Amino acid sequence: MSHTLPGTPVPDLKIPLVGGGAFDLSQSKPENFTLLLFYRGLHCPVCKGQLRDLQNNLDALAERGVNAVAISMDNEERATKAQQDWGVDRLAIGHSLSEVEARSFGLFLSNGINDNEPELFSEPGLFLVRPDGTLYFGSIQTMPFTRPSLKELMMGIDYALEHDYPARGEVAAQ
User: What is the Cα–Cα distance from 105 to 6, expressed in whole angstroms?
Assistant: First the structure.
């Protein structure tokens, strides 16, 4: 498995959005960062809470120059149901992430273990991407629990912006 190193370009990503249109990372030009939140899908109650928290903090993120999108491997129908049932109508929800795209971001994949889960889905990941398309921050998980706190992430963004803090973890394996 390969991971994008901080300070290097992230993979291209163009993904359809619930309600029409598409999110194209190469066209995302935030003041400071694009926040990519990869979530497991409609079957995940922890994702529901995380996406609600993200929606509740969209204005606070915008004040920091951060655009946000949540993305899953769910098809359009499941992603639309999640957006409606979870009450996250202000949040851009991308769907139909392919296995190749998920792997290009280093996301872990899981096979469904019951009728509520899709046959294949990605585990959570959260990335901050600079306007130039390079990775600043990444968190990739193998399990649905213990996700990065959005409050702590915003504190980190504040510190990074105030102190012009560089991306860390940039040293390649030898």
Answer: 12
Q: Pairing mode, if any, of strands 125-129 and 33-38?
A: antiparallel
The sign one gets for the Cα dihedral 157, 28, 54, 170 is negative
AA identity, residue 9: P
Task: Please indicate, yes or no, whether the overall pTM of this predicted structure exceeds 0.70.
Answer: yes
Does CATH place domain 14-162 in 3.40.50.1240? Answer: no
3-state helix, strand, coil in the chain (%, to 5): 30, 25, 45
Q: What is the pLDDT along the chain (174 residues), one digit of tens a residue?
A: 457 899 999 999 999 999 999 999 999 999 999 999 999 999 999 999 999 999 999 999 999 999 999 999 999 999 999 999 999 999 999 999 999 999 999 999 999 999 999 999 999 999 999 999 999 999 999 999 999 999 999 999 999 999 999 999 999 887
The residue ranges of every structural domain in the chain are 14-162
